[in-house]
Amino acid sequence: MQSTTSSIVEHASSIKQPPTDRKATVYRRVYTSLGFQKAYNFPLFIIFAGAMLGFTLARLQYLDLNGHFAKGAAPGDWYWYRANHYRIGISLHLGCILPAGLLMIWQFIPVIRHKAILFHRINGYLIILLVLVSNVGALMIVRRSFGGELATQGAVGLLVILTTLGLCMGYINIKRLQVDQHRAWMLRTMFYLGTIITTRLIMIIAAQITTLIGSYFVLYTCDELRFIHNNDLNYMQSAYPGCGPPGTINSSGQAVVHADFKAGIAEDIGASLRLNFGMAIWMAFFMHLVGVEIYLNLTPREAQRLRQVSYERQLEAGYENPGSAGLVVERWGDADEWKASENI
């Protein structure tokens, strides 16, 4: 009987770890090596940081304004961007926001925040500076970006306001050692900045749909159309007879262009993009605005943990009302006073 029992125990101990457990162990080692404490944070980081990295790397070629950007811009946009303050604006915007997109990814890797604090701080200051300058550039070009409709101007203006506000809130809170609010506002800001990625996806999908509908038209200036077709007067006369040759009374007029993403005609494709850009950026902004707030409200334990960290740091630094020395809701709204945990 004893020999039978011992053999069963030996057999049980010899059973290998199931493959699922081994995969879970490997996965745990991967995300903990990067400093992530929660398993769900790592795939979220891969998805959103990966999208930001991929989009930014794909757009780095646009720093060559006269080459890749001139060819890749929406038809008609380069007519405006090539000169005057629009060229300065697009240079500032692309020259600052693309490096910022590459740098901001490193801010959300926990092991860097914990073990390379100086890099995290310097990188953060640089990102703030780059984003603020890029916002100035965005405001300089928005009047002509994808047609510059009022819907587009309103969306870009709101994005500039909220990203600037978010950076200021994040900066003020970290200077006051309010780590929990610093996290929240920097997450919000980076999600707002990612709106442009989702905008492109929605715009392309919407362009396909409006092309199938086939009853949408957009206005182009005659000067834009001549620029797109390299002053081909024969084409202009046949396609847009209302646009007279340069120097005539109708040379600076406007022409109606059919929005058709599949037509193979440059201005028709551009009209399709212009038609949908304003709608797309508002939809994308709403998705990002709501999405980041859902995430923040679904992670209250992390917020509470960082609030406790803020309390300890503020207490050590001699702040009044430690734990709430930053821009917290208790200072502005109708909220109960926050109390530190007894298990410090």
Topology overview:
Elements: H1 2-13, H2 19-33, H3 41-59, H4 65-72, H5 77-81, H6 84-104, H7 110-115, H8 117-141, H9 150-175, H10 179-193, H11 195-213, E1 217-221, H12 222-228, H13 233-239, E2 254-258, H14 266-298, H15 300-317
Antiparallel strand pairs: 1-2
Write up this protein.
The mean pLDDT is 90. By secondary structure, the chain is mostly helical. Helix content is 69%, strand content 3%. The longest helix has 33 residues. α8 packs antiparallel against α9. The protein is elongated. Strands 1-2 form a two-stranded antiparallel sheet.
* Number of continuous helical runs: 15
N-to-C SSE string, H for helix and E for strand = HHHHHHHHHHHEHHEHH
Q: Characterize the overall form.
A: elongated
Estimated share of beta-strand residues = under 5%
| Quaternary state of the chains | single chain
Tell me the radius of gyration: 27 Å
Question: Which range best describes the helical content: under 10%, 10-25%, 25-40%, 40-55%, 55-70% or over 70%?
Answer: 55-70%
Termini separation (Å)?
54 Å
Strand order of the largest sheet: 1-2
Average pLDDT taken over every residue: 90
Largest sheet: 2 strands, antiparallel
Low-confidence stretches: none
Q: Structural class from helices and strands? A: mainly alpha
Query: How many strands in all?
Result: 2
Task: Briefly summarize what is shown.
The protein has 344 residues and is mostly helical. It has helices spanning 2-13, 19-33, 41-59, 65-72, 77-81, 84-104, 110-115, 117-141, 150-175, 179-193, 195-213, 222-228, 233-239, 266-298, 300-317, and strands at residues 217-221, 254-258.
